[in-house]
Amino acid sequence: MFHELFNLFYPKTCQICDEILLKNERIVCLKCLHELPVTNYHLYYENPVKKVFYGRVPVENATSLMIFKKKGSVQKLIHQLKYKGQQEIGPFLGTWLGAELEKMPAFREIDAVIPVPLHKLKLRSRGFNQVEGFGKEIAGTLKIPYLDQVLLKKSFTTTQTIKERLARWGNIEETFILARPQDIKNKHVLLVDDLITTGATLEACANTLKQAGGVKISIATMAVAG
Question: In 3D, which of 146, 150, 112 has the Cα closest to residue 131?
Fold first, then answer.
C-alpha cells in the first residue's frame, strides 16, 4: 500500500520520453523500448563492433546492445545514467544484454567480466562507475566473476577530445595499469564499457590486459556510435 501511495505522489517516469511508467514498465516505457535501435550484433561473429578493432588488437567476440546517435534516445538514456545519477539504467541494460549473451556459446566460454575503469578523481566526482551495474548484471547472468580491481586508470583525462589526442599520439595505453595480472592469466575476459566511439580506450584496455599473458579479449558495450 505504501509503495502504491508513493508512486501516486512521486510517479516513476520513462528515462527517455519522461511519460509516467505503467505498473508493468521499468526504466523505459514499452513504446520507447520497442523503438530503441537494438543491434543484435551478438548473433554475428563478424559485425561492425568487431571491425572497429581490426588491425589494432585481437578480439575474440564483440557486441553492442544499441546504436548511439546524437540527440537520439540512446544518447538520452546514457546521459541519464552518467550525468543524472540514474544508476538503475546500468543494471537494466546489463540484464537485457546478459540474457542475450547467455544464449551464445562463444560468450559462455568467458571466464570473467572487467569494466573500463574510472580514475579515482572521476569516480569520487561522479560517485559511481556507470559501467559497474551493467557489468555486474552480465557477470551474474553468465555466472562468472566481476573483477574491478584488475584494470586501473592512473591518469586523469576529462574529455573525449583529450582521449582522441592521446590515441593519435600513441600513448593512451599509458593511462591504464594492470594491477592483478594473476587473476586473468590464460583466461578469456569480457571487457565492458558504456559507449564505443573511436575504440581507442577499449583498445588501450585490451592491450594492457594482454600483458598478463595468454589473455583472450571479448568486448560488450551498451552502445556503439553509428
Answer: 146
